[in-house]
């Protein structure tokens, strides 16, 4: 089994779209462990704030098939693919890490560079896996978070909670 980390975000009906995504992840991959949810401003454009979290799954499914499954979940949420990178999204799910593998075979790119670039990815990942070593830097995710400058894009922990499939408590 390979431990896979997924970044989830939405700023269009975010609670409903994240709930749909988490239900679909559970249906397709089984147990899902979830980070807390964070609110953050849109980056690169003016738009409603995003809700972001990280999900952890364990699977034997290869990265290309996971990517295909994530695209299917995007379609269920009504996401339309376009050329613009910075725009409001019904749902965005990115594969952040696939074990310790380094893969640069589009459409699969892990580790995703967003991990070290954006607090809304790094913080929830650190909540789930602070001791995990980044496959390229060799440093822990917790170390990266401690050194991250989050003044430019502050995060606010949301009170919104989704139940983790692997425990009776919510994250």
Summed up:
The protein has 171 residues and is α+β, with helices and mostly antiparallel strands. The chain is built from five helices and eight strands; from the N terminus they run βαβββαβββαααβ.
Biggest sheet character: 6 strands, antiparallel
Q: Which range best describes the helical content: under 10%, 10-25%, 25-40%, 40-55%, 55-70% or over 70%?
A: 25-40%
Number of helices: 5
Q: How many independent structural domains? A: 1
Uncertain runs are: 166-171
Q: Determine the mean pLDDT.
A: 91
Name of the CATH superfamily:
7,8-Dihydro-6-hydroxymethylpterin-pyrophosphokinase HPPK
What fold name goes in the CATH topology slot? Alpha-Beta Plaits
Number of strands: 8
Task: List the topology elements.
Blueprint lengths: L1 E9 L3 H16 L3 E2 L3 E3 L9 E10 L3 H14 L15 E7 L4 E3 L2 E3 L3 H4 L1 H11 L11 H7 L7 E3 L14
Antiparallel strand pairs: 1-4, 1-5, 2-4, 3-4, 3-8, 6-7
Helix pairs in contact: 1-2, 4-5
């Amino acid at each position: 089994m390979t431990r896979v980390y997924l970044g989830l975000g939405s700023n269009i009906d975010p609670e409903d779209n994240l709930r749909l995504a988490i239900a679909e992840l559970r249906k397709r991959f089984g147990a899902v462990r979830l980070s807390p949810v964070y609110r953050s401003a849109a980056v690169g454009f003016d738009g409603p704030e995003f809700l972001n979290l990280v999900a952890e799954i364990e699977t034997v499914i290869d990265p290309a098939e996971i990517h295909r499954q994530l695209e299917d979940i995007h379609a269920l949420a009504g996401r339309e693919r376009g050329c613009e990178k910075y725009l409001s999204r019904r749902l965005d799910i990115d594969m952040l890490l696939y074990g310790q593998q380094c893969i640069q075979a589009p459409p699969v790119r892990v580790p995703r560079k967003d991990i070290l670039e954006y607090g809304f990815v790094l913080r929830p990942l650190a909540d789930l896996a602070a001791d995990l070593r980044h496959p390229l830097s060799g440093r822990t995710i917790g170390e990266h978070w401690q050194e991250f400058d989050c003044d430019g894009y502050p995060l606010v922990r949301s009170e919104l909670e989704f139940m983790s499939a692997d425990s009776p408590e919510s994250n």
